[in-house]
Every structure is written in structure tokens, then in C-alpha cells.
Amino acid sequence: MKNLWLLLLYITLFYFDLKAQNEIADPQFYLTDIKKELNKEWPENRTVNLVFHGHSVPAGYFKTPVVNTLSAYPYLLLEKLKTKYPFAVINVINTSIGGENSQSGEKRFENEVLTHRPDVLFIDYALNDRGIGLKKSKEYWSKMIKRALEKKIKVILLTPSPDQRVNILEPDNELEQHAQQIEQLAKDYGLGLVDSYSLFKAKVIVGDSISIFMSQVNHPNRKGHLLIAEEIFKYFE
Hints:
Layout: H1 2-20, H2 32-39, E1 47-54, H3 56-59, H4 73-84, E2 89-94, H5 102-107, H6 109-112, E3 120-124, H7 126-129, H8 133-150, E4 154-158, H9 174-189, E5 192-194, H10 196-205, E6 214-216, E7 219-220, H11 222-233
Parallel strand pairs: 1-2, 1-3, 3-4, 4-5
Antiparallel strand pairs: 6-7
């Protein structure tokens, strides 16, 4: 009887673990442990590291070569977090490089990303990954995800922000294909997802011009970055 009970318990735990790996992480609960840390006061608290790994958008490029660091979504997020968590010590660490794709980002992942010991890792490469295609993009994202999860790091993936040369309302366009693949990766690994692509698409559907949110052809302005930051912040509420 005891063995049967243990078997049923194992099957139940296996089922819920498998189920969790086939769903996008719930923003309300995914960062529960991180939020507990952010709420702690000195001297019980510690530094929380948020690492942003990607291309020119998280790096803060607006109209190249101008880099508006404080108006890009990593630091707009920090501003919102400090309002909610006034006692927290938060490091925003940006390992993003303008013009880079996930193939290059994966090569330096061990030495330039994991060395920062992220509590939360954000990956944003889809705009530039159009150059290497869906198959290779999935391969390199998967490698980074797996290594991060081995280190017990919470991972949040971002779908692409706009490129004004691509009609965001055109079904199955190249950005949408990457967005769908990233969403599936989040489901496969039970990760957080910030669907930047859908955020901007929703604005266009209600009648806004995409140019309102852009500083140049494929870089959001502060208003565009704020859309992304507000969506990320939902994981910390």
C-alpha cells in the first residue's frame, strides 16, 4: 500500500512538472522568490542581478549611433522597480551588443553573461535573428536557455519589437514567425514571456501608427521602450 501511494505521488508530481514545462510561466508566481528578496530590508537583503542579453534594442540604441541608456526598457524597468521596492539593491547588467544575433550571443554566454550570476535573465535577439533564420535561432536560444536553467536562473524571453519595413498586420510575416517560435520556446521550458510583438501589433490594430513608438526604422523610442518595460514589470507586481 505504501509503495502504491509513493507511485501515485511520483506520477502526480511528474504530471505537474511536465504540465509546467508546456505552459508559459504565470507572471503572478514565476518570480515569487525574487520578489521576496526585493522586499527584504537591510541587513537581511542582498543584491538582485537582472541581466539583459540581446541586440541593439535592449542595448539602448535609438538613432544609431546614439545610445539612450536611461530611456531603454532595462532602465525604465529599474525605475519602476525602485518605486515598488524602495529597499532593494538591484543591478541592471546589460550584456547586449548592437548588430548582434543569437549565434554570437551564445558564443559569449558563458564568459560574459553567466559570470554575472543573474537572478533573472532576459533574452531579446529576434530582430537580428532574421539573418540566421528560424532553425539556427531556435538552436542558439535553446542552448542559452538550457545553460541558464542548469544554474537555476529565471529566464524571460522577449519577442521582437517592430521593424517599420515589415507590415506588422501581415499574417505570418518574418517577425511574427520568430515571435511564434519564441512563444513556443517559453512553453517548452516553462519560462516567462514578454510578447513585445503583440504589444505593438495591438496598438496598430486600434489605429495608432507604429511610427509613434519608433525612433528609427527598427529601434523603439522611449514610448516604445515603455510599452516593453511595463509588460516586464507585470512579473514583479
